[in-house]
Request: fold
Amino acid sequence: MPLQTKLFIDGEFVEAEDGSTITVLNPHDNSEITQVAQAQVADIDRAVAAAKRAFPAWRDMQAAERGRLLLRLADLVEDNAEELARIESLDTGHPIRDTTGLDVPRTAFTYRYFGGMADKVQGSVVPVEPGFLNYVTREPVGVVGQIIPWNFPLMFTSWKMGPALAAGNTVVIKPAQVTPLTALKIGELMAEAGFPPGVVNIVPASGRTAGQHLAEHPDVQKIAFTGSTSVGRKIVNYSAGNLKRVQLELGGKGANIVFDDAFLPGAINGSAFAIFHNQGQACIAGSRLLLHERIADEFLDGFLSLAGSIRLGNPLDPDTEMGPLTSTSQQKAVLSYCDITYQEGGEILIGGKRPDDPGLADGNYVEPTVVRAQPEDRVCQEEVFGPFVSVNTFSSDEEVIELANSTEYGLGGGLWSRDLSRAHKVAGAMRSGMVWVNCYKRVNPGSPFGGVGSSGYGREMGFEAMHEYTDAKSVWVNVDAQIPPYYPR
Ligand code: TAP
Reply:
C-alpha cells in the first residue's frame, strides 16, 4: 500500500527541515509500518507562513467555489475508500469493518456537508433606529491551528477542516504522532481536488514542542484542539499571547442510564456499542453504566455474555469486532485502571487483562472489561479511554440524575426508557453537551458536538461550527449622508 510520509506544506510534500522522523507502529503487533517526517518548530513556522499567504485569496474566493472543492474532496474520499479504510485500520487498530462502515463514510459525509454549507452562512440586518442601516456579516477568523488526537484521526480531520475551510479560513493541522497516515493521505487528495497551495498544511509533530509552538503562534488566530483535558488547559494558557480564539473538545465520562422500563435487548446491545466500539477510545464512550436496581441483574447477564463473546483480533480481518488499543501507553493506562479497581475495593466482573490468545500477545489488546465500584471511586470518575466500563445501580430518577452529573465532565450521555416523559425530563436534567435516548453515540455533521465543564467548550458540526470559525462584523450606515448623525452639545 503506498503511504504518504512527508509533511504537506504549501501544496507540496516535503521533509522536515532537520530531517526528523517518527516511527509509526502497527498496534496489532507493534511492528514498524513506516517512518513519517516529524515537523519541528521551523516547519510549523513554514506552514503558518504558507497559510497566512494563502488566506486573503481563499477568504475572497466565491464561497460556492470553496464549497465545490470540499465536495470534490468528499468524492475523492469515496473513490479512495478502501485504501483509506485499510490505512486507518493499520495505523489505529480500528477493525476494518468499522473503518469501512463508519469512519470513511462519515468523513466523506462531513466534507460534503460543509461543502454544501460554504455558501449558506448568511449575515443579518438588525432593526435599529430610523435613518440607519445595521448589517452583520460573518468573516473568517484567519489562520487556524488544529490539533487532533489518535482515536479517530481520519474522521477528526474532516470535523475540524470541513467547517474551517468552508468558512474561508486557512489551516495548519497537527495529527497525533502515533496516527499520522490518513491525514497525510487526505493532503494528497486535497492537492488532487485542486485546493490552492497553503490553504491546508498537514504537519505530524510532537505536541509538546511543535504543537505548543502552533498554539502559541502569533500569526495563528484560532486554535481548535481535541484531546485530553490536561493538555486542553495548557492550550488555553498558550493562547494568551495573541488572545487567539480557543475551541476545546476534551475528555468525557459518559453516563449510560438503563431504566427499569427499558427495552433490554436494545439497551444491552446499544450499551455494548457505547463502550466497546473503537476499543472504548472515544471521548463520548458510555463508560459509566447506571442500572436501575430492578433490572440490574437481568441486564448484566446479557451484557456480560455479550462482552465475553466479542471477537478480538487483527483489525484487518473482516471478522474482527474489537482491535488493539492504538498505543502501548494507552494499553498500559487501561490495565492500570484494572489494578486501581482492586486497590479501591471494586470487583472486576469480566476482562481486566490482556487476552490469552498467543497470536495477540505482541499487540496492544485488552479484553472487554466491566467493573463494579463505588460512584466516588477513581474508576467511576476518571476517563479511562479503553474498553472499560463501571457499573452502579440506582432506585429513583432523582438519584440517577445526581449520579449522572457527579463527574467533572459533561460531554455525552445516554438513557434507555420507554417512558417518554421520563426520558425528556432526565435528558433535560443531564449536564451534558449531548444526550442519546434509546440509542448511543449517534453523530451527524448537522448536529452540534461538544461539551460542558471539563469536557471543554465550543461546538463542532452544524451551523454552530460555522460560527466557531467566523467572527461577526457589525456595519453601521447613516442612510442619508446629508443628515449629520446626532451629536450632543
Ligand atoms: P493528548 O496528549 O491530549 O494528545 C492529543 C493531541 O494533543 C495530540 O496531537 C498530541 O500530540 C497533542 N499534544 C500533546 N501535548 C501537547 C501540548 N503540550 N501542546 C500542544 N499539543 C499537545 O492525549 P494523549 O496523551 O494521547 O491521551 C491521554 C488521554 O487523553 C487519553 O487517555 C484520554 O483520556 C484523553 N484523550 C481524549 C481524546 C478526546 S477525543 N477527547 C482523544 C485522545 C485522548 P502528540 O502527537 O505528541 O501526542
About this structure: Residues 147-151, 174, 176-177, 206-208, 211-212, 215, 226-228, 231, 234, 249-251, 283, 333, 383, 385 surround TAP (CB under 6 Å). Residues 385 and 409 are 13 Å apart (CA to CA). DSSP finds 15 helices and 22 strands in the chain. The chain has a mean pLDDT of 97.
